[in-house]
Amino acid sequence: MDKSEVKKMSWWQLSLIGVGCTIGTGYFLGSTIGIQLTGPSIVFSFLLAAIGTYIVFQLLAKMTAADPQKGSFCYYASQAFGRWAGFSCGWNYWVSSILIMGSQLTALSILSQFWFPQIPLWVFAAGYAVLAIIVVLAGTEKFDQVENLLAVIKVAAIVMFIILAIAGLIGIVDGKSYDLSIPNNFDGYFAEGLKGFWSSLIYAFYAFGGIEVIGMMAMQLKNTEDATKAGSIMLLILTIIYVLSIGLAVTTVGMEVFDHKESPFVTAMKRYHLSFFPHVFNGAIIVAGFSAMAAALFGVTNLLQSLAEDGDAPKLFAIKIKYKELPLAAMGLGAVGLLASIITALLLPGRIYEYITTAAGILLLFNWLFIIFSAMKILKQKAWARVIAIIAIVFIFAAVTGTWFEHTIRPGLYVSLAISALIGTVAIIIQRKHTISK
To answer: Is the whole-model pTM more than 0.85?
Structure first.
């Protein structure tokens, strides 16, 4: 396929793909944990996360426009700091993607228990994992089109909630109007104080995870300079949808009724006694969430293949089989990651979602730090631009460190630090061997 065939995507198409890839089960279920940690101030967490995400994206877009590359931010990390940075970035992204799949797998299982509460979490996890592997092996050529359709379903589910929530407040749903439950003091907004707000930041940032897609797909744009426009529109849409929907959820019912095993939007709509809503909403999110997980398995398979081709992973993972041209070994390692999630769900059924989501979110933010530091070294920036980049670093540092203050999510911090330390150690060893060989 030549370049003229590849570069055929408009900026608005990339924006829609970005929205679809970003909205996931982390928002539909993970936001509940954030609400329990901080209360209505979760809205402020999302606004801060939106600002931090926008800064990171702008830096990535500028590097992409100046030098479009298939490896995107990992390539820029390598250019800025050497091979060790590219290696660390690539493997960190692979592991974070595996954890994100594990988080989605667990979320799908929790949402499925809405209908079948007696069935253990790990049974659902195993079933969804097998289905995802079958989808990848099928290698359907129409998969991208299906993904776009299911992305629309996710957005439509949120819009449906917003419309119904507003209709319920003004009395259209059950014939009587309700007042918004808006706090009138500091404690009302910050249920667990500033410490709870600090801890909630990781879940707001996690909900914006996916901006990397813009950088990695920018080469398919008709004009790579449109990457900035595509990402800006994407983030604007996401911010409006997120803030409006989460704001309606936390002002509709009291904080005490939210449950980490149930979507906050289902919880908020219970008082209107709409029997169809929980089932329709739950079903839509399961279908869309499964599609995102299957797409992520495609992604980590191709990512590992690219790492192997670049010499940052064993050559075994670059080998493709004739059937569907799949790098079977690379997909197999991704499947092992899913298996680890299933085993963890079996051993730790209580708080497994919080642990995996926290670890995935932190590793994702470590990649964002790679983007920021690479941009600060590669791009010629004025002083004010560097100050803005530092602000993003502060926001990310706050999101990561906030996980230490809440014991229910702290294990996720330990897991992410251990993984990063292991990847960093291997990267340094490889860098030294590469230097000596020269």
So the answer is: yes
